[in-house]
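Q: What structure does this chain adopt?
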Amino acid sequence: MSEGTTRAVFAAFAGNLAIAITKAIAAAVTGSGALLAETAHSIADSLNQILLYVGIRRSVQPPTERHPLGHGKERYFWALDRIAHPHAAKAESVPTGRFLAQLRDPALRTVLYEDSAALAGLVAAIVGLALSALTALTALTGDNLYDSLASGVIGLILIYVAYQLAWRARGLFVGEAPPEEIRNAIRVTIAGMAG
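A:
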C-alpha cells in the first residue's frame, strides 16, 4: 500500500471534515443556500475518503482460493474510478490536462478532483453570497437570486467531477491498456532484462 496515498487520503478526510464544519457555521450565520450545499458536499467528500481508505486496505490483501489473482482491483471499486514517480512528472513540466489523463491511482485522482471541486464550489458560494449582499434588490425584497444561482453552479461542478471520475474509472474496470508511452517503456525494460 502506498504510504503517500494513505497520507493523502487521511489529510483529505481531516481537511474536508474541518471545511464541512466551517461551511456549516457560515451557512447557519448567513442563511446561504449555496453554503449549505457546499456543507453537504464537504460531508460527502469526508465520507468518500473513508471509502477510499477501505479500498486501499482491501486491495493489499494476499491472494486467496476465491481470489487467486489478489484483491488489487478493490482500489478501483471503492474509488469508482499512480503515479510511480510524481516528482518526475513535475520535473518534466507535464501540462495539467495530460497529468490528469495519465493519473492512474484512483485514490489520488479522487482526492484531487474532490478538493478542486470543493474549492470551485466555495468560490461560487462566496461570489453568490457577496452578490446577494451587495444587491439592493436582496435588501428590499429578500430575493436571493445570486445565492440560488451559486447553488446551481455548485451542482454543475459536482456533476462534472462525477462524470470525470466515472469516465476515468471505466478504463480501469474494463482492463484498458496503458498509454503508448508506458507500453513502450515496459518493452524497453523487458528487452533490457532479456539481454
